[in-house]
């Protein structure tokens, strides 16, 4: 009996390793489900679909029904889709479970662009160079693709588009939480500059929710030239390490996690110079790691920390690490607000 118990324990622990070995499978099957537009197809159909109905509507043709069945079987196991049993195997139908709504394109909380970015073959390749990335003055992205992530995207417009769309997806998710849950943070602000605002997804949401605020995007010249014109939003070219336009508040969404501590302190000092002594503040939207947290996003946040290390040599930070940066830049105090997104809102008050 003791041996039998030991075998069961050994089997269970070995199963954990097998699960980790094939951890990539769920990510890539998820990517394939998006590329095959499975959730969109069932959603647009308006009711559960049989396997043959689904196969006839997919963007690849002709579809092998047995192969599609096996993919759907795995997606059902992932609890993204529901298989409605029927005595007649021909009449088995598939419908969406709640998480599958995030696989549907065209609505503000769609995660399609993020899925395609994170699982892109090139953007995944630095993970294969994690070992080399541990070496001092080495970078996994450079090892994988021969240049920095920024130089790579500048030389590859198609990949730059995938990256920007993925970032815009993240911006939509966090911006929705920011404007709907943090209205008090924007009280008393008349002017706001979104530093590193990219295509303007975040600041557009702020401007729409708080139309009294005069909003601007501040980014590098090539980013500004490629960004769309947005009503009531001023676009300003520049470099944040040199100067930052003056405003009542500076917004930085997922900017500081790209940089090391000394660079972050330098950026924050520029921000401090840009805001007024009375009522001025810097609004940082970034991840706050908490190793004791049982939050559903905790593991994702840790994964994103490694993602930053591999791609930009940046990092996600704990509250203690954020305090070190804010104090180092000469700010008087800060306040952290948790929102229903991966990121939190850190208000840094310079005076």
TrEMBL record:
Gene3D superfamilies: Vaccinia Virus protein VP39, Winged helix-like DNA-binding domain superfamily/Winged helix DNA-binding domain. Pfam families: Dimerisation (PF08100), Methyltransf_2 (PF00891). Residues 127-332 form the O-methyltransferase C-terminal domain. Residues 18-105 form the O-methyltransferase dimerisation domain. It comes from the Eukaryota. Keywords: Alkaloid metabolism, Methyltransferase, S-adenosyl-L-methionine, Transferase. The active site is at 257 (proton acceptor). Signal peptide: none annotated. This is O-methyltransferase.
């Amino acid at each position: 009996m003791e041996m039998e118990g030991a075998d069961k324990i050994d089997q269970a622990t070995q199963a954990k390793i097998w699960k980790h070995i094939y951890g990539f499978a769920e990510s890539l099957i998820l990517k394939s489900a998006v590329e095959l537009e499975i959730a969109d197809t069932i959603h647009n159909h308006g009711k559960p679909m049989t396997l043959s109905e689904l196969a006839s509507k997919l963007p690849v043709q002709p579809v092998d029904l047995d192969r599609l069945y096996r993919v759907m079987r795995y997606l059902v196991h992932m609890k993204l889709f529901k298989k409605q049993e029927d005595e007649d195997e021909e009449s088995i139908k598939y419908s969406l479970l709640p998480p599958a709504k995030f696989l549907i394109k065209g609505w503000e909380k769609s995660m399609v662009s993020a899925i395609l970015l994170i699982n892109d073959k090139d953007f995944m390749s630095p993970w294969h160079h994690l070992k080399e990335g541990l070496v001092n003055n080495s970078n996994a992205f450079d090892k994988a693709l021969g240049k920095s992530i920024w130089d790579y995207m500048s030389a590859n417009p198609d990949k730059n588009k995938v990256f920007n769309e993925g970032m815009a997806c993240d911006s939509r998710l966090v911006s929705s939480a920011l404007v709907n849950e943090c209205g008090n943070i924007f009280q008393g602000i008349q002017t706001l500059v979104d530093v590193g605002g990219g295509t303007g997804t975040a600041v557009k949401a702020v401007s729409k929710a708080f139309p009294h605020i005069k909003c601007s995007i501040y980014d590098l010249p090539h980013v500004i030239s490629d960004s769309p014109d947005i009503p009531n939003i001023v676009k300003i070219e520049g470099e944040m390490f040199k100067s930052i336009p003056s405003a009542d508040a500076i917004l930085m969404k997922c900017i500081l996690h790209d940089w090391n501590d000394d660079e972050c302190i330098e950026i924050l000092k520029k921000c401090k110079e840009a805001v007024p002594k009375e009522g001025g503040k810097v609004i940082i939207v970034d991840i706050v790691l908490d190793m004791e947290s049982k939050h559903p996003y905790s593991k994702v946040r840790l994964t994103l920390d490694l993602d930053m290390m591999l791609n930009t040599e940046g990092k996600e930070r704990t509250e203690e690490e954020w305090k070190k940066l804010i104090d180092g830049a000469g700010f008087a105090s800060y306040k952290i607000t948790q929102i229903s997104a991966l990121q939190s809102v850190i208000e840094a008050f310079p005076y």
